[in-house]
Amino acid sequence: MFDKLRNLLPKALRNDKTIIPVVRLQGAIGMVTPLRPGLSLASVSQPLEKAFAMKKAPAVALIVNSPGGSPVQSRLIFKRIRDLAEEKEKDVLVFVEDVAASGGYMIALAGNEIYADPSSIVGSIGVVAAGFGFPELLKKIGVERRVYTAGKKKVILDPFKDADPDDIEFLKGLQQEIHEVFIDMVKSRRGDILSDDADLFSGKFWTGGKARDLGLVDEIGDLRGVLKKRFGDKAEPKLISAPRGLFGRKSGVGVAAKLLEGQGGLGDEMISSLEARALWQRYGL
Questions:
Q1: Considering 11, 55, 56, 154, which one is annotated as catalytic?
Q2: What letter does residue 96 receive in the DSSP assignment?
Q3: Which of 211, 244, 267, 268 is deepest in the core (most CB within 10 A)?
């Protein structure tokens, strides 16, 4: 009945479009500061819920562009997407832009289908921990480090002490456990089409075309082209963003106030920015 009444309206007044909500998931994961929000469950929950709440939408599209970061936040975002997809009974289409590597690829696994550009970087299924050691520096400048603990392993991998082989072995054990969780997720979501390539879980990464051959993505494609092919010429993507405050985005005054209140020092901001930059540069970006 409604469709018949709608057909009586002038064509300009009809709403014949198929709206597909789109959520952009971009940035290093878990590296959240006042000046640079980054990707975390807290930052993406609202736009995800809003996108999946669109009842008439046949699917939800996600644009993923992330070099990775926190494995915990990566998995939490993945799980939130899958929980919403099952609750709302919607397919999830993931579109990789520049990179979906490490934790970025973990998030991409939430898609029922994953699309990439031929030049996208995909993969890096592994775990990394990096740092610096300064034991000789203290000696040169005449500084003695004093650390007092209850529990002999309370301070391990101290950058101002020589590396302890037992501490390194302990860290590698933790990394292996996290790696196994990641591998299980990949096999669970992509197992039926995965290649048996020996390097698949080695931490290597590939272009979108090679990732398709390995089974890490389904097809080469872009968001608008895939949506129109799948849902017709009247399919229209609609970007869903996080809600803004009363005066739009956080102002510089507000951010400065937070920094002065100790919620994020300028030193922490600089270190976090360098860490994020290093993640992107790992993939030549």
A1: 154
A2: E
A3: 211
Q: What is the pLDDT of residues 49-99, one digit of tens each?
A: 999 999 999 999 999 999 999 999 999 999 999 999 999 999 999 999 999
16 with 231: CB under 8 angstroms? no
The question of whether 154 is a catalytic residue gets the answer: yes
102 is catalytic: yes
Task: Classify 262 in phi/psi space as left (phi over 0), alpha (psi -120 to 50) or beta.
Answer: left
Residue 100 pairs in a beta bridge with 66, 122
CA of 131: how far to CAs of 76, 157, 168, 170, in Å? Answer: 25, 9, 12, 16
Q: What is this structure's pTM?
A: 0.81
With CA atoms as reference, report the closest residue to 123 among 218, 192, 38, 214: 214
Tell me which of 40, 74, 102, 272 is the catalytic residue: 102
